[in-house]
Hints:
This protein is α/β, with parallel strands linked by helices. It has ten helices and eight strands.
Amino acid sequence: xxxxxxxxxxxxxxxxxxxxxxxxxxxxxxxxxxxxxxxxxxxxxxxxxxxxxxxxxxxxxxxxxxxxxxxxxxxxxxxxxxxxxxxxxxxxxxxxxxxxxxxxxxxxxxxxxxxxxxxxxxxxxxxxxxxxxxxxxxxxxxxxxxxxxxxxxxxxxxxxxxxxxxxxxxxxxxxxxxxxxxxxxxxxxxxxxxxxxxxxxxxxxxxxxxxxxxxxxxxxxxxxxxxxxxxxxxxxxxxxxxxxxxxxxxxxxxxxxxxxxxxxxxxxxxxxxxxxxxxxxxxxxxx
Length: 287
């Protein structure tokens, strides 16, 4: 029997090149701790990402890692999970990568209940491309692309994911790595599409006071409640005067892989006595 892996064992040889003080450092440490707690095996774990500061994360962890193109992490992660169902698949991105160019993919991965964990490290800005407004930049904030202040209403990711029927929705804060670790463990263990919004401040383009400002608004949820109450989950998401951390919504329902295996593959095999009739299958598509 192999020895238990420690957090340090999951570190790759690459050194993070984020700006000093970036919230992503706290998330990376929490991620390594979560992998240790779950004893994830690198050869059975896939970390996928798009483009952006946070999307560098897979390179810093020993696992199957893929750094893709802008906004396309969920289609790739879905393909990995469907082709290798036994693999633990974790997708990582930022608010620009996920909620802008990649926004069209989120609803479909959520409604299908693809068994992956999607983590968005939200810093309210395009950090890697030097400070443009993102979908979660607060209204009125001056950025490189909004000289007179951001004019677009700020996106509420948690509310969006509940509406998209994600079966697990949580929010956490990289300034509290232990809470991040707890949310990651619960999300990875959840059978279905798990979404975590991680408040991960950009001290370079959003200011060094971001950690302090977030802490002043943080409220922790009590786990002793009905997590499947969608109306209550929307109430929590809609209260934007505070930043509520914890599992906001959770529901157990069949995953897309379950449906494919039981409703498609097994029925097809049964109909063909275990030996598919290729000619009969092809005739279904003839005019």
